[in-house]
Write a structure and sequence with these properties.
6 helices; 165 residues; disordered N terminus; Ferritin; 76% helix
Amino acid sequence: MRRMAMVTAAVLGLSLSPALAAMDAQEFVDKAYTGGMFETQTSRMALHLSGNAAVRDFARQMIADHTKANADLKAIAEAADLKLPVTLDPERQDSLEALKSAGDAFPGRYVAAQQKDHRAAIALFERYLAEGGNPQLKGFARQVLPTLKQHQAAIDAIAATNPAN
């Protein structure tokens, strides 16, 4: 079916919609790596700006897990001659800046940011597993996805307690 859509699009001179196009390896690396950078940067902030033990424990786990995942992703990307981003994407940079100036609202905003980012990461990794073409990146996505789902469950549980500090 997919091949037929590609042939039809080519014959008619149409471009494929993003929904039909396979996810590019570089796009996956960019999004996954910046997601990991965001998780670790905001979690380092949480260690300093939150007095909530559950938030701080979660932040420590994020730093450990996402540092390891990004190191693994870096090795795969370098072997495939893919570039690694060195800065956050504009949306995450804006979120990081908002967290820096959140003051007393930091813990709740950190939790909300983690929920949002983990939902996006899970969707990204699932999409790459379904559509990606690089076997090493698919293996990475398959390996990391359960951890991302554990993170989502943990941050959702913390959100349910309404962390105030």
